[in-house]
Amino acid sequence: MDYLENVSVELYDGYFVDLFVRVSNLLAIGMYEKFGYSVYRRVLGYYSSADDGEDAFDMRKALPRDVHKKSILPLQSHPISCSLRVGKAGDTFEVKIDDADKICTIKEAIQKKKPDTIQGEPDKLKLFLAKTEDGKWLLEKSDVGKKLEGGETTPEVKKMIAENEMMPSWKIQDVLTDFKMTGELAPSSKQIHVLVVLPDQQRSGSTKKQQGHKGMTAAEASRCGFLFEVAQNLAKLYDFYCMYGDDFPRMADIFKAVENGDWKFRLKGGKQLTAVALHNYFTEDQWLALMQLDWKRSSRIHGGKVGRTSEGKRYLVLTHAIATRRGIDIFKDIATKAGVVGRPTEFEVTVEDEFCT
Q1: Tell me: the pLDDT tens digits for 271-290?
Q2: What integer pLDDT is reported at residue 71 of this predicted model?
């Protein structure tokens, strides 16, 4: 402060200028104490956009005009509308949270709001952002919102559950930023923001109806059928050792062939059916995804076919651990490359919990 005053006196040598500086400083100090450092710098006239990141803490109490970068979310307390799916009945309610709250905190708030419905540990709840395909919030009065309230799980809701899981360690601020739901798209009234799936609901459903193979659910059978069909199609292009015979190739046989380099191109009319080496057939991420899926499946089942939905689309059911947004895209690409489907849009990837509901 003294430095600023001295410079002013030396430059202008005027009583009124000096008085103005003193008054400005007092005003700035008051603004600092009430609104934060970023506003104080504005009053003195040397605030720049470069200060936004440094002043993020003080910007939480700054004037609204001080928060002008979308990448920085002001801490605020506002209601989040949650849709709780219980059996065949929907239930929409609100919980009040802060942007700094973690998802695990929201789970606790949801349990306190619905103690009769939600029993056990709140960390068992699964939360999904209710962001629609057009990038907006699910509206309560929309057709999908009304059906959800009535207990119906539409394809739109299934897609949200498959792609928009909210991790317990994330903060609300992280979720809104990552999913680009800030600014004009920030949560407001008449919207559903979070889909809640109960632990018992994740395992519910008629398991007997969903037995694709003896002792296995349709979800498990879909994974086995998918891996077997991928292995079969690769066996048409490459020659490698199959533990259970050439008519019964497994992904484990293919992984071993790739690792040891123990494979050959199959020939038809003296010509290779593909020019791509086996180890280059899939990308590194795709090979890793296949290995993970093969490790997850039951070793009792090796055969089967990829199932079809009621609309005739071929499908694969993944666990939550694998069914990330990127994971879903990877398996759609694998299905296309391996000839299971003609193009990614013809292949449906869903989540095991949702499939069994």
Answers
A1: 999 999 999 999 999 999 99
A2: 29
103: closest CA among 50, 43, 165? 165
pLDDT in tens, 292-312: 888 755 444 445 667 777 778
Three-state SS string over 253-305 comes to HHHHHHHHCCEEECEECCEECCCCCHHHCCCHHHHHHHHHHHHHCCCCCCCCC
For residue 352, the tally of other CB atoms under 10 A from its CB is: 22
The residue among 11, 44, 12, 9 whose CA lies nearest residue 26 is 44
Look at strands 194-197 and 77-86 and give their pairing. parallel
Indicate where the chain has its CATH 3.10.20.90 domain(s). 77-201
End-to-end CA distance of the chain: 66
- Residues, the chain, total? 357
Tokens 């400005």 identify what position?
Answer: 24
Q: Which residues contact 131 (CB under 8 A, 6 or more apart)?
A: 137, 138, 160, 164, 179, 181
pLDDT of 82: 62
pLDDT at 240 over 60: yes
CATH class of 77-201: alpha beta
Check pLDDT > 70 for residue 91. Answer: no
Among 235, 237, 252, smallest CA distance to 290 is for 252
Residue 137: DSSP 8-state: B
Q: Could you read off the pLDDT of 16-52 as tens digits, one per residue?
A: 555 555 666 566 555 544 444 444 444 444 444 444 4
**Locus of tokens 């090979």:** 287
Q: Where are the beta strands (DSSP E) in the chain?
A: 77-86, 89-98, 126-129, 138-139, 191-192, 194-197, 238-240, 263-265, 267-268, 271-272, 314-318, 347-351
